[in-house]
Design brief:
The chain contains one helix and ten strands. With 97 residues, the protein is mainly beta. Strand 5 and strand 6 form a beta hairpin.
Length: 97
Amino acid sequence: MVRYLSEMYHRVFQCPTILADIQLNVKGMKNLQESFRDYIAVETLEGDNKYQAEGLGLQDAKKGVIFQSFPPVLHLQLKRFEYDILRDAMVKVRPVK
């Protein structure tokens, strides 16, 4: 898996990562394929969420994940619980039906 960040000036920073497990969102997802698509979705950093580039200041950028290969065993952690501030407790997330 490669985590990447590309800036407006087309510099691409890559950080190869050896993974043993990934955490997939369940909330709002119909199935495992949607969870994977959500995991690899490109995030655009703009507006109040711009990337702070060293020597260049705040920049629009895109960041994401690209799977180059998978290990023989990949553990999938389904994020089935989230913190509820009103209840001050963890509550089970229901997937979309």
